[in-house]
Specification:
Elements: H1 16-27, H2 35-43, H3 47-71, H4 78-86, H5 88-118, H6 126-146, H7 149-174, H8 191-205, H9 208-211, H10 221-251, H11 261-267, H12 271-295, H13 297-305, H14 324-340, H15 343-371, H16 385-401, H17 405-434
Length: 435
């Protein structure tokens, strides 16, 4: 495979299961421990249908990202595919949307993790403990990743297994406690309720684009990326639908008002299981951070290698061969956001940013396939790519229009600002060359 300039010096050490674990670890984050209650509040017992509909939409997007990733496997992932398909301006806007959404989510999840830890500590320790948890969690994961891609990948593998075991226990134990009467529809369905439920479901499905940012370090990418996406998205969709159905089957109408739905459902079976699920929620947040800090700094690294950010961010450590400067800067920005914001303030805008990226990723896959671009050997070559592109783009556009007017305006502002910044940067570069 011909190496792209931005990937020079990187070690392609991530295999199929490592990438699949990374995707699962990002996607199965803290959201699934709270989303069942919010979805039930919007749709009642029909909540699993929201996850099913969202799984179809995200599945179509995953096919497109697998097609594009098998053709252009480079650092930055979806940013690289969109840039290859539509040029540097589109790539810059996509890349900015990607890393901005990621760092907002990273700060929010770290803040939520700190809130969870502080909730069991004495009030007088709250402020200091909150800041300490944020710095220790993000800083600790960043330190592991600066020592080498293999260490970061092993941490992701371990965290993925650690968070999936409690969820597997929830499904196995809860399946025997489900009551048919709890599936009676007591909430009136409405278009607005269904729309909000879809946005909430999309939030807990997003994240695969984060893991693909490390595509420049994936071995045999034309084969690995499609397989890993297929494994991760299929298993996650089945898990989410099962979790929503079991939570509804155990709690019934009480699900909509639960603050910790999975833990409350397990409390109906055993107090020990409730404690297990509460701990799993915190563990899941930390696991999400481990995957995000493995992948997202690679977008800054790719930008720097392409001359769109300071060159220091594009440097590799001479021994570990990791983009240490990019990792440290990304971690510092995430810590700052976590110390000053909350998860709720950042989640929706981050999700809408992902929807825009998915639209661009679907369109890029079609364009790359049409032009026959294949930088890593034989690509996926999905037979019904046109159908996947149509479903993926159509569903993401619908998701955006289901958001509030203020949320949509915020998204437009982000896209506009990134476009203007790119144009200013390019003019400065052109002026230096002319001089």
């Amino acid at each position: 495979m011909k190496e792209r300039r931005r990937d020079a010096g990187l070690v392609r050490a991530i295999g199929t299961w490592g990438l699949a674990a990374n995707i699962v670890n990002v996607v199965v984050g803290a959201g699934i421990f709270a989303a069942p209650a919010a979805v039930a509040a919007c749709m009642g017992a029909a909540g699993p249908l929201a996850f099913l509909a969202c799984a179809i939409a995200v599945g179509a997007v995953a096919i497109c990202l697998a097609e594009g990733g098998s053709r252009v496997p480079t650092s930055g992932g979806i940013y690289g595919c969109i840039e290859e398909a539509f040029g540097p301006l589109a790539g810059y806007v996509a890349g900015t949307t990607l890393w901005f959404s990621d760092v907002l989510a990273c700060g929010g999840v770290a803040a939520a993790l700190a809130d969870a830890v502080v909730s069991v500590l004495p009030a007088q320790m709250a402020t200091a403990a909150h800041a300490s948890v944020i710095v220790a969690s993000i800083g600790g994961v960043a330190m592991v990743n600066t020592r080498g891609i293999k260490g970061g990948a092993r941490l992701v593998d371990a965290m993925t297994l650690a968070k999936l075991i409690p969820l597997a226990i929830f499904v196995a134990a809860g399946a025997h406690a489900v009551r048919k009467a709890n599936f009676l529809q007591t909430t009136a369905l409405s278009p607005s309720g269904f729309g909000r439920a879809l946005i909430l479901a999309l939030f807990v499905f997003t994240g695969m684009e984060v893991s693909l940012s490390a595509s420049g370090e994936v071995s045999r990418p034309a084969r690995t990326i499609p397989r890993a996406l297929g494994i991760a998205v299929t298993s996650t969709a089945c898990l989410y639908i099962a979790i929503q159905a079991i939570a509804q089957g155990i709690l019934g109408p009480a699900l909509a008002n639960s603050q910790a739905p999975l833990a409350d459902a397990m409390a109906r079976i055993s107090p020990v299981l409730r404690v297990l699920l509460l701990g799993a929620a915190a563990l899941s947040m930390f696991g999400w951070l481990s995957s995000d800090l493995l992948a997202s700094p690679r977008v800054l690294f790719a930008f720097a290698r392409d001359g769109l950010l300071p060159s220091a961010l594009g440097k590799l450590h001479p021994h570990s061969k990791t983009p240490n400067v990019a990792i440290v800067c990304y971690a510092a920005l995430a810590i700052g956001l976590a110390l000053t914001g909350t998860f709720a303030e950042l989640a929706v805008l981050s999700t809408l940013g992902s929807a825009v990226l998915y639209i661009g990723g679907c369109a890029a896959a079609w364009q790359l396939a049409r032009r026959g671009v294949a930088l890593a050997g034989k690509p996926l070559g999905f037979r019904w790519l046109r159908v996947a592109v149509t479903v993926g783009i159509g569903s993401m556009v619908a998701m955006i229009f289901l958001a509030s007017r203020q949320e949509i305006l915020g998204l437009i502002a982000l896209l506009t600002i990134s476009t203007l910044v790119y144009m200013v940067q390019r003019r400065r570069v052109a002026a230096r060359l002319d001089a």
